[in-house]
Amino acid sequence: MDSLSQIALGAAVGVAAMGRRTAPWKAALWGAVAGTLPDLDVFIDHGDPIRNMVLHRAETHAPFWLTLFSLPFAAAVARLQGEWHQWRRWWLAMWLALVTHPLLDGMTVYGTQLGLPFTSHPYGVGSVFIIDPLYTLPLLVGTIWLLRATGRGLADGPGSRRGHAANIAGLVLSTAYLGWGVAAQAHVGAIARQALAAQGIAAERVLVTPTAFNSLLWRVVAIDGDYYHEGFRSLLDSGPSMPFDRFDRGAALAADMQGIEGVRRIQAFSHGFWAAWEGGGRLSITDLRMGQEPAYIFRFEVAERRSPAVPLAVPVQVGSRPALQRGLPWLWRRALGEPLPPPR
């Protein structure tokens, strides 16, 4: 998830775990710090943009390593706050703030290596978009409510009790929203598979993930041999019909690039949701999960188009985002059930 969501989650979890054992601002501050720490791996340069992509959310997002780190981290926090007598409670709060970060990331489609050091499999439920205000707002409102109440000197009064209740309510609502996303994803997935079968598309694998900033409009990608199909379904759509657009997957181009390490990494990391392109005399590989046709964030030029293909010394990221001036109006209208073709 985005940094603000992780900060909000860490702060809310820290406050909930510490309760009235310390000043809420202390718990919120250190919870926010713990909620941010796993994402500091973005400053690690692994040598090329493909490796930076697939090795993000690796060791720093593994609950095993975060659990080990939580012990000295919590001890340092307890010492700094002069509250060594309750370092065990600080450990619980910091551990929860740390491990909920990758667990939340695992709900997005990106791929989080939760099982390290035992497995490097990238887990991604894909039931929530990386930025979703409806997830983040309850956390922010609950924590800010509590901090405002205690900031008025009501740390032990009814305002504080209501503030702690508001913080817990924010956590409950945000978690319920994640559950809603899983249910909506399953609902759309069932409709999509029926529509694909009705159109004679024998999908090898199907991806269902929400579009930007919401959980009403869902994007579906189906892999069918040398082609992939993209469709959109709003929860406000009526009827079982669901149109799909078909695109060439570039399987022959991918075969020419099989000896390239970056290509193999993308194919594995994307769980098979990839496509290859040729343009400007270069070959590129794309993770189809993040973006929509024709704009994808993680598209990489990896080779010169020759016979055989000549790998680039360092892959070049050439991804793009959908144009906001066209994409956002379409997104909201389509989410409300208007049968619009996607902007291309």
Could you characterize the architecture of this molecule?
This protein has 344 residues and is α+β, with helices and mostly antiparallel strands. The protein has ten helices and ten strands. The protein has helices at 3-18, 24-36, 49-54, 63-80, 87-105, 133-151, 158-198, 251-256, 261-269, 324-335; strands at 205-210, 217-224, 227-234, 244-248, 274-279, 282-287, 291-292, 295-296, 299-304, 310-317. The strands form three sheets. Strands 1-2-3-4 form a four-stranded antiparallel β-sheet. The mean pLDDT is 94.
Largest sheet: 4 strands, antiparallel
Give the count of structural domains.
Answer: 2
How is the largest sheet built, in terms of strand order?
A: 1-2-3-4
Q: What integer is the average pLDDT? A: 94
Structure, briefly:
The chain folds into 2 domains: 3-181, no CATH class; 199-325, no CATH class.
Task: Give keywords.
344 residues; 4-stranded antiparallel beta sheet; alpha+beta
Question: Could you give the topology of this structure?
Answer:
Layout: H1 3-18, H2 24-36, H3 49-54, H4 63-80, H5 87-105, H6 133-151, H7 158-198, E1 205-210, E2 217-224, E3 227-234, E4 244-248, H8 251-256, H9 261-269, E5 274-279, E6 282-287, E7 291-292, E8 295-296, E9 299-304, E10 310-317, H10 324-335
Antiparallel strand pairs: 1-2, 2-3, 3-4, 5-6, 6-9, 7-8, 9-10
